[in-house]
Design goal:
Elements lengths: L1 H47 L6 H14 L4 E4 L5 E5 L8 H13 L3 E5 L2 E7 L3 H66 L5 H26 L7 E4 H13 L9 E7 L4 E4 L1 H18 L5 E9 L5 E7 L27 H13 L2 E5 L5 E7 L2
Parallel strand pairs: 6-8
Antiparallel strand pairs: 1-2, 1-4, 3-4, 5-7, 8-9, 9-11, 10-11
Helix pairs in contact: 1-2, 1-4, 4-5, 6-7, 7-8
Length: about 375
Amino acid sequence: MKRSLILAVVAAVVLLLGSWVLFTQRVVAELRREAQRTSEMFAEVLAAQDPNVDPVSALLELANDIRESGVPMIVTDANGNPTAVANLPFDEDDPRAREYIQRLDDQNSPIVARGLGTNQVIHFGHTRLVLGLQFIPVIQVATLALLLLAGGYALQTRARADRERVWAGMARESAHQLGTPISSLSGWIELLGDREGDDLGQRAVGHMAGDIERLERVAHRFERIGRPPQQEEVDAAAILERVTTYFGARVPTLAHTVQIELRSQGELPMKGDPVLIEWALEAVVKNAVDALAGRGGHILVEGDRLPEGDIRIRVTDDGPGVPRELRRRIFDAGFTTKERGWGIGLALARRIVAEWHKGSLALVPTERGARFEFIFPA
């Protein structure tokens, strides 16, 4: 697709340059004909001064030369009535002649011809050459500007694609490197689990096993970066339960308590990639947990089905909320208000929802705190 776009831009540039050459050659040819007609008209004026030449015949030849010049012209008498028309698709008796006078005057100021006791006014417009010189270069410049924009967009898209390939390769390599220590830790946990009589140790082993499982899921997520998302039947309610259970066991429960509540209306079947959907939900819930750090509060995670069939998920916290001046930037990659933040979580979550699942993720108004709303199409 990129190669086709580049070839299309190159072909358009060639056509544009070719049209410019043809147009300039046409202008040169027309200017040569104009110089020849002017010279012939001057010769006829000189011939009319010869006493041996019929002046009426010379004037007729001169009038023919004017008609051949292509200048649209209307001659009117002192009362504004058309008396002669040249290079127009109607004659002086046509009602359109009087209406066309104003259009010619808008192009050029009329000329008053004095003679024979009456004043005649010549109204004339632009030739095709003049009209072409007015509009064709503008069209060509506009086309060239569009081609430059298209070329810049193609280069920018290619550079972005190259960066994404590098990040995808780094992510998959990170997942590969995580595999060895995770396998080793799993073996040690099995050995610790075989020891009996240590209740605290057994509970710790249980939590460690959960963390190892999560590390395996994270490594699996990194492997998915840069690859097409899967489309399979998933239960959004089950994903919500896993995410809230995981964070519920790891939020503060003594000082500055954080409570996580789940409200879900039964099963919520949908099509999507369960690994990526869970990743997006965790990013938003983690953002809510961070917003309540040092102050405590309540996080409400809701899942339901809209009347039109779409799945809606809401994550609401009663923290300080998002300042109005920052709301447009919170989904920008690299933007963060945390000292040690990377600014990737919300940007990645929106990309997972919008680009890979054709849904939407937005910060919606709420009376207190912040509320993020997912919409997954049916």
